[in-house]
Design goal:
Structural class: mainly beta
Radius of gyration: 26 Å
CATH superfamily of one domain: YVTN repeat-like/Quinoprotein amine dehydrogenase
Helix content: under 10%
CATH architecture of one domain: 7 Propeller
CATH class of one domain: Mainly Beta
Distance between the termini: 39 Å
Oligomer: single chain
Amino acid sequence: MFNAQHSRSGSAKPARRRLLLIAAVAFGTVFGAFGAAPAEAQPVAPDDPPTSLATRDNEWRQVGPNGSGGKLAFTPARPERAYVQTPIGNVVFRSDDRGTTWQQSNELPVNATDAGGIAAGPLRPDMVFVGGVEKDNWHGYVLRSTDAGKTFTQVLDTPSRVTGVVFDPTGARLYVTASDGVHVTTDHGNTWRLLSGSPADARNPKFTGGDLYFTSGADVWVLRQGARTPVKLPRPGSTGAGVDQLTGTGRTLVARGDLQVAQVSTDRGAHWRALRGPWGTDVVVLAAIVDGSGRLHIQVNQSTGEMQQWGSRDDGRTWHAEAGLARIDLYETTGTFPGRPGTDVISAGAGIYTTDDHQTFRRIGVPGSEVLSLTVAQGRSGPAIVAGTMTGSYQSSAPLKSRLPRGYQEWGFSGTAPHTIGNRIDGLATDPSNPSTVYRVRNTCTFDQPCFYLEKSTDAGVRWTIVQTAVPGKALGITVSPADPKRLYIATHSPSAVYTSNDGGESLTQNGHDDLKGFTSVAVDRADPDSAWLGGPDGLFRTTDGGVTLNKVLDGWVSAIALNPRTPGHAVVAAQDALYVTTDDGKHLTKVAGDLTGSLSSLAFTPDGSTVFAGSHYYLTPALGVLRSTDGGRTWGSITRNLPEPSVSSLTVSPDGRWLFAGTTYGSVHRLAV
């Protein structure tokens, strides 16, 4: 249940105009397949009431799911507003309705790799600053936005790692903690100076009672209101190598150090005492905070492996059991909406939540998940989309509605913390003959010995049943035969294999191909369950005996395969940087585009076979977003338009052909009216 920081490449930086030009030049046509290039669409007005959002043609709309945590920022100048910087630091979300809907920032001007904090202006709610570390040169950075987080410009570039960003209560000064000390600006980032007397390795900045507190190693420092230099407070007891978490409200501070002990001070840091309670001493302290109302909360892991959470309303003298660990996972960042001190906002590994009692929780954001796979199934109330992410799968019917209902970005919270390790869903497949049945492959086990679980849902992805456990290999593709719904294909690497089933997954046959580097994609012919296509690092292969033997038809890395649902023999194949078309079942393949930037990730036909889409994600070179062809794949044009980020990992089209859904690398799912 612990949160895992998965390594992901940073998003690309070039402007959208350049992406459109690259796509057009690569294909030798500027939107030749469908007329003149449309004007760039504008994002949805952030103040649109969520109950009255109507479909706008030619415009991408972010539709969820909420499944990511991050750093939090609030502003008393607009109490219903919240900003979130996601864990990698390359996306900022804003909500103007306390988390009912969220807007995503455009691409940031840095290749961010680690979030370093976010702060919103106390008097100017549209001014927001974010900090972090840039991947290209490992410099620290601070970015400024004056349009409520839509666009950012860089205002600080320092060789030192930026670890925190915070405004003073008046909004006159912005402080940035970094590995070389504390930086301060009094002109909104135009000029900076290093705070005199500030220590190295400064982190965890927090304003409370008008004073700025921060940590350095195992020490807590304070810059008192009106003072020019900070002073070191008495060390908070045994905090080990350093203070990892510091929170404060009024005169109360809580410091958690090195996972071993938590210390509390009720006199602004003058004296500290260890938090003691019913959890005993033989524990690992996972999180310890003081919330906006002055209540204490501690999360521990017992030596027996049992995880517990306790809360106190009297500075730690008495404690009561709480349910936060079981409900939402570790408390990583906390805050409150201004004017609502009794309601806490908690950031955890797979979401942002609100709670009044730390027993029950409501997830309010944010749609910052990496969506690795997509499918559409038939639920009780109609079609529903299922998204596979790094922390499990999410299901909702809201994104398929013309008028998006209130809370449309929230795809359901079960009340149980999602497992954030071993819950990566790389493949989803709907049974064509029974669209309420969905299969998924969940990759888990260890990095050097990967395995997957095959799981099945009969209610369109709401509940899942394990069909196969700990099958060797990392599964990256799964499909169900249209001709035989009991026939499944699963593509894996480590080992390189094609798994097949003739009984809906109740048993699996491993067809090993150890001479190859594995498979990443699979597609099965509509009429013949023994005839399938497989792609991977070694090329494109055809099989006519259910994966036992393979016939190579194309060299080079093949990342996706799409078969025309209406025209036998017609297929589109995505190599890593090129697109191919065949109309004779692979006997002849024609390259229709090559040397594309980014890496092609996915393909999807409309149900009538008239249009095919290709997704591109960032991999060393800039992503192209989403491409479209209306002539069977011969010519292509970009429809990336207003998509906030062009890094797309998965695609699917609704069964009625009305909606195209793009699963992105850092912004969950976006939809476009087809």
